[in-house]
Amino acid sequence: MKKTKVINSDISRVIAQMGHFDKLSIGDAGMPVPSMTEKIDLAVDNGIPSFMEVLNNVLEELEVQRIYLAEEIKSENPAILEAIQKRLPDTPVTFIPHNEMKQELNNVHAFIRTGEMSPYANILLESGVVF
After folding, report:
1. Could you give the CA distance from residue 66 to residue 92 in angstroms, rounded to a whole number?
2. Was 10 annotated as part of a binding site?
3. Which residues take part in binding substrate (predicted)?
4. pLDDT band of 1, cuts 50, 70, 90
């Protein structure tokens, strides 16, 4: 049995298959996911699991060199923005329009759906290298 904190087999597999500059997305329960993008659905109930719980878990294994957030998060969900910035204080952030973020889901290894029910709680994580 794995000793690390990411014990979800699908999430662990996706992270293990990622290379430099590859992307993984985590988002709220309402984010539309393209049919060709793998969706790892963790949503159980309203807020379970939360966006931040899943992000914190993924960050235990994934080396991240850049994050992408929707421009709209600044005004529509400043609490989640603050939590992300607190968790990743030294990681460069690129803000993009939400519509562009939805299009980027065509280019990610997977989308992890949480039970988060707050607006614009979505992130693209760009993989870095550990050497």
Report:
1. 5
2. no
3. 28, 98, 120-122
4. low
pLDDT for position 72: 98
Assign 106 to helix, strand or coil. Answer: helix
Closest listed residue to residue 107, CA positions, set 44, 33, 45:
33
Which distant-in-sequence residues (6+ apart) come within 8 Å of 86 by Cβ? Answer: none
pLDDT digit string (tens) for 76-106?
999 999 999 999 999 999 999 999 999 999 9
| Structural domains of the chain in order of their starting residue, each with its CATH number | 9-127 (3.40.1650.10)
Beta-strand relationship, 93-96 and 111-113: unpaired
Q: Which residues are catalytic?
A: 20
Question: Is 121 annotated to bind ligand?
Answer: yes
